[in-house]
Automatic annotation (TrEMBL):
Keyword Methyltransferase among record annotations: yes
InterPro entries: 2Fe-2S_ferredoxin-like_sf (IPR036010), 2Fe-2S_ferredoxin-type (IPR001041), 2Fe2S_fd_BS (IPR006058), Beta-grasp_dom_sf (IPR012675), DmmA-like_N (IPR054582), FAD-bd_FR_type (IPR017927), FNR_nucleotide-bd (IPR039261), MRET (IPR050415)
PROSITE patterns: 2FE2S_FER_1, 2FE2S_FER_2, FAD_FR
Name of the molecule in the record: 2Fe-2S iron-sulfur cluster binding domain-containing protein
Amino acid sequence: MSTLRMKIARRIDEAEGIRSYELVSADGAPLPPFTAGAHIDVHLGPGLVRQYSLCNAPHEQHRYVIGVLREPESRGGSVALHERFAEGAELEVGAPRNQFALHEGRHFSVLFAGGIGITPLLAMAEHLHKEGLPFALHYSVRSPQRAAFRRRLEEAPFAASVHLHVASEGTGVDVAAVLAQCPPGTHLYVCGPAGYIGHVLETARGLGWGDDRLHREYFGAVPEAPAEGEQPFDVRIASTGATYTVPPGRSVVQVLQEQGVDVPVSCEQGICGTCLTRVLEGIPEHRDLYQTEEEQAANDHFTPCCSRAKSPLLVLDL
């Protein structure tokens, strides 16, 4: 996949452990446009590619802005950005992709952000305000020091639509109460830790909200399933008939790459969908957070970076 050569024009400490990076074209070339909810792949070194949501206004064409939480226990992406990339540094960035787009229409939108999950919802708020569409943004953080982009939100022309919830101050969000005030036809968007997303979605479903109005994007790693009880299984490449065994503790991607079978990967956590592969035979054991429950139930695609198999064999459209 082609990439863009970009330069860090500004690096700003936005909150405790969170920095924003303003990226501009290294050679002055125009940037591909993006829509609210989009992300970019940031190449931080050999084999180190991470996804970060764009948080600036989508109508801006001269820059991309991302927010990055430094996670010491992460797989190296956020630490690399925080420690190795200063203002003026150049890096490769993939063109924007959107798997968390706003639903078209003039309905009300309610946005729930948990922690660094504020980033894609910032772009959504900017777009909704520019288009004159009604919305409310509920931003939950553990402490005031963890509230990234707070000044920007307080000074935004849509500040009246923003509600900050601080757990340490006892002002956590009452999701059920918020949803009870939403007009009919409201669409819900949520981004944050898996537990936070699960709570918001379960509350909405419990109040009768249909999945067609519920939209989510995970930013954190998928909790790894315990290796205990994992069974080996085979994967067959449909185009060649070659069959390989995937042992416990190894991923399909790892096994295939060792055999010279190229599978495009990015997050390696089942979040981004880059490696989504068609399954022609067999039943996957889904461990991704990319597909909806309905898509997983179809069992015709899976993410080989983290998912496994319930059946002894998976035949893959590769």
